[in-house]
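Assemble and predict.
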Amino acid sequence: MNYPLFEKHRARLEQATEALRTRGYWSAFAEMPSPKSYGETAAADGKRAFEAHLGKTFELAQPGVTGTHAGERSPYGIQLEVAYPVSDPEALIEAALAAMPAWNRQGAEGRCGILMEALDRLNRRSFEIGHAVMMTTGQAWMMAFQAGGPHAQDRGLEAVACAWREQAAIPGMAVWEKPQGKNPPIRMEKHFEIVGRGVAVVIGCGTFPTWNTYPGVFAALATGNPVIVKPHSNAILPAAITVSVIREVLAENGIDPNVITLAVAPQRTATQILATHASVKSVDFTGSNQFGNWLIENCRQAQVYAELAGVNNVVIESTDAYRAMLKNLAFTLSLYSGQMCTTTQAIIVPSQGIATDEGHKSFDEVAADLAAAIDAFVADPKVAHAVLGAIQSQDTARRIDEAHQYAEVLLPSRKLVNPEFPAADVRTPMLLQCDARDEAAYMTERFGPISFVVKAGNAQAAIELAERITRDHGALTAGIYSTSAEFVDAMVQATWRTKVALSINLTGAIFVNQSAAFSDYHGTGGNPSANASYADSAFVANRFRVVQRRVHA
Amino acid sequence: MNYPLFEKHRARLEQATEALRTRGYWSAFAEMPSPKSYGETAAADGKRAFEAHLGKTFELAQPGVTGTHAGERSPYGIQLEVAYPVSDPEALIEAALAAMPAWNRQGAEGRCGILMEALDRLNRRSFEIGHAVMMTTGQAWMMAFQAGGPHAQDRGLEAVACAWREQAAIPGMAVWEKPQGKNPPIRMEKHFEIVGRGVAVVIGCGTFPTWNTYPGVFAALATGNPVIVKPHSNAILPAAITVSVIREVLAENGIDPNVITLAVAPQRTATQILATHASVKSVDFTGSNQFGNWLIENCRQAQVYAELAGVNNVVIESTDAYRAMLKNLAFTLSLYSGQMCTTTQAIIVPSQGIATDEGHKSFDEVAADLAAAIDAFVADPKVAHAVLGAIQSQDTARRIDEAHQYAEVLLPSRKLVNPEFPAADVRTPMLLQCDARDEAAYMTERFGPISFVVKAGNAQAAIELAERITRDHGALTAGIYSTSAEFVDAMVQATWRTKVALSINLTGAIFVNQSAAFSDYHGTGGNPSANASYADSAFVANRFRVVQRRVHA
């Protein structure tokens, strides 16, 4: 067969595959929302396109529509009122199964070509998607554009490249010729068909509706599976745009668009019915431990790829760049008001304090200086709003309100008024301090801008605590500040046991909560915070099967 | 680090990796037990080495030994009386965990070098292992040598190559340099450490103690996991020899030999305690549905790779080589008395009969001719003994005795006396016939030399039945005989849905129950007979994690 879209995007796919092999810096999509990259009118066009969705019914032409559902509440307080078609789950499954054989027959080349074209189209709609992400999640604009647009697209492309690499390693056919001494050889012709496992369900979260969804969507599609996207009930619009773009590319290429559909499920029971359906063979999930573990426990018919909660931690043992360290941490804790699955929650400091380039700092000084650094960082309202965004959910707002009960307050959270969005719930980060023994306070995820400076008996105890937190409660990120190579090495070895990505002595413009596609693995899949990684070969290899046939040649 | 064993075996590893990429014929180990390949004295030396184990205690120098256990019953009726050390499961786990960090630090190169050296040593002991396999499983000599020795070693090497390919795709380090316009780039140095998931338990079966065990053992070891081998209680010797050889190579290279240990567990509860242990992160299993499903249900802390039972099936619609087809099937049904997980059980024939190169054959003619072909094949006692071997378990013997109750007997099973081993329980294949509706008869695995000619309404119904059997009960192999390209294509498409390997019109020296390493995938992992395949990338990719660290460069 001939796959013009594969040929069109082949060079980029090869670059992406090479980037995975070397893991240096590489990105396919421009991260700056500049006219140079996106065109002079892109910003205005994208905003208009976003606004055109508001107050309307989002058309998807899906099967089994039983009604519509609206109800997204913008953390910025604007009225969204987009109504989405609600499809009967059984109808979506049937449509997915009907679309699957032809999708399989496209082969890896056909599928990758179409998916890369879709990623290109999504990229061109990054402003529209950025606004949709911003207004549904409460992210500030720059993050919403970058993480919601180009960075999410990069993660999607990474999944495609990873899936491509695994599938390209399997030949379509082979001639097997076994020598028989003086007799003629035995010759068999063998064909190897790659087939998807079955229907894939991808369940999105409320904070990163594209970044955390694209890996599963594109990995499942690239390996031959039809996908049903079940977005978080408060972040449907970014998913709906994504699904509509992919459906459009499918239809243009003569493929049943029901290879991907949107499941708007106002009730959790509808999601449960979908995820446990016998025809569903994989479930990708980002969200709470509670529902994630329910899925793992109950979706026995499917492979579940789950990113759950954790208690991300940083150990501070010593530093030769005290101010830069504090600034780096202050930014990490402020970014999107700590509403990232990678934000540090426990900052572990030895009770004796630490050696720094500004002399010895006691535990109390470190704690107070960090509080001051955060306070200074969010002092300028312009900076604060550009970084904090708004509080995504009322649960997070409630946690902030209650947090003073957890431990001693070093820095209270303040409410800010965003002049552009007066109804937005904007909060500055809250910093608490406690003893390592006060496990009830800090050793459970406190999602949002709530962090703890935790006092450990000594430096060795700090590492041991970090290791235990990660082993028992999980972590997507860990950090270490130390000028001792030996101490860093001890922390490195601890992370090999607990399987968590480590950032060492971050003092510049890289932050522990950032993860770059094609280079940083997001999660390892080896501790309770996630059972999968964006994107290693395990993330794609189990999504397809090879079915062979052989015949005498 | 420097890995001399990796350098020693690098060329072969590259050949093996290339073989996986092309899937043509390739084998690393000579399959004929000839002096030319193995040396003039190899046969006699190997037999002597096997005999030297009998009546003795097998020394392994393992930790936590609480006593010894003997009790293997040879299907050939000879006295084995080998006593094996029984180690406390907790002691084996602790020893495995203690050995794991240094095994991880060997990296993929270090591990693959050592494992390939071990495979070489195992190959040199193929005669000894062949006798051990023959005498514990009841396989005839040629199969015991080939499947137990070189073919098992090839499957082990295949797993190593597969694991190597996945790990070699991950760079040890990278410099990540992100351009910043006119400012200097941000530079990060990143390191990527491959770490095993944890302790691996590999549970062997009674019929193929090496062939079905080596893939899991070598895949787990190659990806950084210590392995505890739990052999079937009646096929311990081949596993014990294997473990001792690998331990020897580890120790010679300064590595803690407890990277691999043998768990002789006379009680199933001991195996259950081992497999459900919190430190055990993978379980490889070959055996019954009952215990396999128990493992899948209960080993929630581990990834379970299970090969279970199925109902392998062949559809006969038409043929242009009637006699050759019958001969091919007769051999398939006779080989190791049908005690292969790949042996055909249901031979589905349309009620109207089939077109052949000898004219139309009615259903009854096909059934009778197949019975006659089997009878003729086992008529010569020399051929019969060389192919049938002996009945491995008393359960199988009981099933043969009871099989006449299941359906109408086309060919009864006969007991043969093997003059060399008068106490061996030797049985010829039993062929029954029934209607497709008699599902209770043929639609459950009847392990052993018991097969059914099943009468389907018509050719289309035959395919539909084959599809349903595989979908609901699983199959590792399927076959089709047809001269119609259209009909073959319909069967091919059915196998894509049920995910089973298909053999088309086998009439020569290749049989549906044979699977060659580096070319044939054994199982697809996509139907109830197995959730994994020897060996695709899914078989190795989830056995390790990548833990990264990054620091400003």
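The first helix of chain A runs from residue 4 to 22.
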